[in-house]
Amino acid sequence: MQKQLILLLIMLMSLFFFAGCDEENLKYSESSKAVSDIQAADQEATAIAFKRLSIVVPPPSNINDSVERRNLSKRLTRFNVADKISYIYLVDFGKIMGFFVVKGKVSSVNSMLTCTEQLVDDGQGKSYGRGNVHAVASPDLDGSYGSNGDAIFFFNDKDVYIEWNGVYMFTDQYIKLDQPPELMLEVDKDGQDISTKQKKPEVDKGSQQGVSSKHKRKEG
Fold first, then answer.
1. In angstroms, rounded to a whole number, what is the distance separating the alpha carbons of residues 89 and 179?
2. Could you tell me the residue ranges of all domains in the chain?
């Protein structure tokens, strides 16, 4: 008799538990449906407004040229040249921190020679008639993963690698500086760095990187 009472109590407790779970699930389901209904109403209102306004103000049908595409094509053609000489001004703290002659072009440290993502099948069956294929980050050619940060890099006319993660101005026409750069790479006539030598005579301005004797411009 005692065992039957215990069993009955267990059954009653289970009923109350599952009833509570069902009530919570019902509340969650109703809440989710309410949100879905609001989102559906918003989407419908957006579609109706877009349809009405696209009729009132349709896109022009007489465009026979694209200046935007011409700009992109011209930029690619002009800078996709290995020996192209350009100039870059590195800016920080409201000052010009550096000025360099660029040979080639400026690139992003996150550019890759291969795909940035790979399609992988997780082998967990099919979803909507297709395999469970999803995109994952692809390793770089050196076998490493992850971002390289937010920076650009380039090679100057002496083949020195320079990386920068600040503001910069880039042009293929030399622009006169009203203030000297804060950072200066001093080189000799052979392009060798002499800024680390302890004692040296004053370097002629014509031998400083960015205003080298080879690329010095007449001013005025």
1. 12
2. 1-58, 113-143
Look at the block and give the residue holding tokens 């992850």: 146
Residue at token pair 């700009």? 71
Alpha-carbon span 123 to 220, nearest angstrom: 70
pLDDT in tens, the chain (220 residues): 555 666 656 666 665 555 555 566 666 677 777 888 888 899 999 999 999 999 999 989 899 999 999 999 999 999 999 999 999 999 988 888 889 999 999 999 999 888 888 888 776 655 555 567 788 888 888 888 888 889 999 999 999 999 999 999 999 999 888 777 776 666 666 656 555 554 443 444 443 444 333 344 444 3
Tell me the CA distances in angstroms from 186 to 21, 156, 177, 189, one per residue in order: 75, 13, 17, 10
Structure tokens at 55: 């009729």
Residue 207 is given by DSSP the state G
CA–CA dist 50, 47 (Å, integer): 5
